[in-house]
Structures are given as C-alpha cells and as structure tokens.
Write the structure tokens for this entry.
Amino acid sequence: MSDRLFEAQQLSKSYGIADGQVDALKNVNFSIDKGKFVAITGPSGSGKSTLLSLMGMLARPTDGVLSFQGENIAHLDSEQIARLRNAEIGFVFQSFQLLDRTTAIENVELPLIYAKIPSKERCLRACEALTRVGLADRLDHYPAQLSGGEQQRVAIARAIVNKPSVILADEPTGALDTATGREILELLQDLNQQGTSVVVITHNPEIAEGAEQHMALVDGRIQTASTVKKTASAKPDQA
Ligand code: ADP
C-alpha cells in the first residue's frame, strides 16, 4: 500500500458568485505522506478552509486531481465518498461543533451511528475515545457543562472514535486561551505520535514551526512549502 495520504496535482477550486467567480485555490500541487503532522497557514481568504474541505471531501475540486490513499477522489460517487470520509477522516473545528442537547458520550457516538455500529460497541468505543482525551469522568456532561478546552477534547474524541487515518483541524486552538490551546496541541501531537496523520490550519506560529510539513498559502497558491525530517533527538544547530 502507498505511503501517500494525499496527492494534489494542479488542484483548483472556484466558487460561482452573482457577478462571476472566486478562484479560491489555483493549480496547487502537494503531497502528504501518512503519519505526518502538517500545518497550513496563510492570511484570511487565502484558501485554507477551501483546501481543507477538499481534503475532507466535503467539496469537489473544480479542476485538477486530488488523490486520497492513491485513489483519485473524482472517481468516487457521493455514497463512496461519504463512507470513506466517515471511516478515514476526523474533523475538528475552531467552534467545536458539538450538539448542545447531547451528552459528551452521545456526541462521540454520532460517527458510529452513521457507521451502523451496534449500540453496546458504540458506547464502549466512545468511552474509550473520551478516556483517550482525558475525559473519562465527563461522559454524561452536556457541552454547556464543559470548559472550552473540554469541549474541544470531546470534539477530538468524536474525530478519532472511528480510528481515522487523518485528523483535519481548522484552527482547533483559535477559540481557546493560550494554555488550553497548548494542551489541545499536545493532544493532537500525541495522537500523531500514535500514528494518526494530522493536518491543521493555524495562525499560531508555534504550531506551524513545530509541524513536520508546512504549507503557506497566499491568494489561493502555495507560496512556501517546507518539510522537516522527524529525528529521534532533534537538536538546535551547534554552529
Ligand atoms: P481562508 O480559509 O484562508 O480564510 P477560504 O478558503 O475560506 O479562505 O476562502 C478563499 C476565498 O474563497 C475567499 O475569497 C472567500 O471569500 C471565497 N469563498 C470561500 N467559500 C466560498 C463560497 N462558498 N462561495 C463563494 N466564495 C467563497
């Protein structure tokens, strides 16, 4: 099996608007290998969310090719895409996007309901995911009874409950204070160490600098792309 998670060739996305179109992504090329921690940065309107929505198969490219695990997404019908997305991709958003009238464990069970997992197993797996993010003692809390950091942990538990190959996170620390944001980042880094790929949109330079791969977008194009090799003991240059 290929080590490639995503591969984009001349990937473009335009939106039709009343008086023409917006070219949100313009002939973008990149590849992301499995297991990477990738940061996407860029000013507002540069195409970051558009890129993430294409990677998450929430939108289809206007032009070019996007492959996921070696398969051109354009060759899949909407049912196949929905199944692939539910099985392979976990989403985390700035605003958590939890269901308010639903407890932590029920929020986390949602993707398992879509995947038609029987209720007993659902409960076990949701409990396991919430334990993994440090919320074993908050299973029956409603979102309003949780802090922002805890709500984001529930959202991360929901993202990992299907054991996806990749977590796509859109400014996951954007609504949190610095200390809580750092804890959420550490959680994403831990999940990455345990084998889940992570792609994160961020304005936080600390996250971008710590990433193995960094794509900086400007006006729908990748302006700079850098990859850092992971080493067991990365030390600063002595020179
Ligand atoms: P970023 O995430 O970097 O802020 P976006 O991907 O949200 O950028 O947007 C890129 C460009 O595409 C912007 O000019 C934005 O206004 C436009 N855009 C995004 N979504 C839509 C849409 N659904 N319809 C029309 N234009 C859109």
